[in-house]
């Protein structure tokens, strides 16, 4: 099987700290925190690998905190083709207050990408891609790269006859679906899709219309997570509303399940079932784990699929 | 010159994040944070090295975030004899709210020390120590080591005819000064000294009496930081109250300056001047830097020394 190539230009280390009560402006004592490689690219690569898909991961990491990423990739059998640059990648700090149950999250934009690291990363991608390769471009862009970076990468990958699944929102998504060539697959959430079409999408049928618009424009697959309402899929000129018992807590696991099933030549309905099962199964899981295979199989059976008019 | 050996069993990475306004329970955006190796041991080793003293640093670090420590030691010319264990050392998160000016700090106890890493660290210390060596034992103890760890290490180092400067508070300090052999030098702050003697020390003369008690018991040098009121020194049967224009913001720099000056065979009065200058000069400095040499020289001249009855 040809590996799926995941690209992450701005990875993140997720640091979770548990406190009895967070007192702002004071010195707080926490339990020992957990530090996990995170960000959309890592989550998707891990989800794919956990479902038996061969994965190559590339992008740019900082020398100072690359070790946890390398350890995770080694543990999951993900081929590590990351380029290193000086410094460290950004981290996200999550402070969990046990008394209030609230989590205070602090995010950072990330370090600027260095030109030589970016050039080396592009060289890796060129070298890894073959006709028919699936390349997943993921996450926010680091400072120093313009909003049309993914649009430009999609054009470059088209020259390799590779297909792109794009997992990002905001301006980077809008630029990528505003020109040609288009990505093969996009997976915005409802808010990101609404932003891209410039109007609110309160009902599932509003989401459907927006997704069909991009599908008719040439985006082969569209996967939209709808949180409590499940997910909407558009592919092969058809559309489905898929609902599970749990909430779509993890859009990255949703996409990973969807791509993994197709990579294993399962049909579209099986792919939707696995996608929702992977996503809802992630609820309550902390760290670099996927739910047990048996759990996901059980969850997949319970997914309800509704054909929508396309 | 014989190097000073600094031992840190529970190092810490200091992570500082700047926010416009911290909203607890929400997702916050911060500027890119700064991550610096910290903790008493690193600060003292760095302060000594910045004043031209040869330093060997040992202790235990986690493989996952050892890189910033290694980079700092290399940059400062500190000989790195750290033992690595799996995992990562603890980090301190500081969230600086630009609107309120308040800093929210979240600390962790640190990872348990692994028996083989501890054994390897003890072997390093045994190998490095020579008769007359000065060994600085620093900071809180990691989970897994008992409160009498420093007391036991002081006894072990006495067999090598080495002297110990002890930079810690709490139970570890009380155990170390409650038996024999005693450390050569201690540098509690006012609260730690009060805790050790079991009573409040509101006036400088109260601090003096407590310090003289330990000095008469056999602790050769006692350095107490008094925050806004400067510092109190007891050595060679004499006592001084040293005051500077600035506040004693940094007890680690105070001890580093004190030990560095003596290592360079300056007299006690010069050592006190350098200690206060190093400490007050650190105010407002973020990261792994010491104040400029010229700044410290200027500050040292302005220190007022008052002999106290001993």
UniProtKB/TrEMBL annotation, chains A, B:
It comes from the Bacteria. Residues 11-280 form the Carbohydrate kinase PfkB domain. One of its GO terms (molecular function) is phosphofructokinase activity. The keyword Transferase applies. GO terms for cellular component: cytosol. Keywords: ATP-binding, Kinase, Nucleotide-binding, Transferase. PROSITE patterns: PFKB_KINASES_1. Belongs to the carbohydrate kinase PfkB family. PANTHER family: 1-PHOSPHOFRUCTOKINASE, 1-PHOSPHOFRUCTOKINASE-RELATED. This is Phosphofructokinase.
């Amino acid at each position: 099987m040809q590996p799926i190539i995941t690209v992450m230009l701005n990875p993140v280390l997720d640091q979770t700290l548990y406190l009895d009560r967070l007192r702002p402006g004071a010195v707080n004592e926490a339990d020992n925190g957990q530090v996990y490689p995170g960000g959309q690219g890592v989550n998707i690569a891990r989800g794919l690998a956990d479902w038996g898909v061969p994965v190559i991961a590339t992008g740019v990491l900082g020398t100072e905190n690359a070790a946890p990423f390398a350890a995770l990739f080694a543990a999951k059998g993900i081929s590590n083709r990351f380029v290193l640059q000086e410094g460290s990648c950004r981290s996200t700090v999550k402070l969990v207050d046990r008394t209030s149950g609230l989590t205070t999250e602090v995010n950072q934009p990330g370090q600027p990408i260095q030109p030589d690291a970016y050039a080396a990363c592009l060289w890796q991608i060129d070298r890894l891609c073959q006709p028919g390769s699936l390349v997943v471009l993921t996450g926010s862009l680091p400072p120093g790269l313009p909003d049309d970076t993914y649009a430009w990468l999609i054009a470059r990958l088209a020259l390799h006859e590779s297909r792109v699944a794009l997992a990002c929102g905001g301006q980077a998504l809008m630029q990528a679906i505003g020109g040609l060539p288009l990505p093969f697959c996009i997976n915005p959430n409802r808010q990101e899709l609404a932003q891209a079409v410039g109007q609110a999408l309160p009902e599932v049928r509003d989401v459907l219309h927006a997704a069909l618009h991009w599908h008719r424009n040439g985006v082969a697959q569209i996967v939209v997570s709808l949180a409590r309402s499940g997910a909407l899929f558009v592919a092969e000129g058809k559309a489905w509303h898929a609902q599970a018992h749990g909430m779509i807590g993890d859009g990255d696991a949703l996409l990973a399940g969807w791509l993994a099933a197709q990579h294993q030549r399962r049909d579209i309905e099986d792919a939707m079932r696995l996608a929702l099962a992977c996503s809802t199964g992630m609820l309550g899981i902390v760290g670099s784990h996927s739910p047990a295979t048996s759990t996901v199989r059980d969850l997949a059976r319970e997914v309800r699929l509704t054909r929508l008019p396309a």
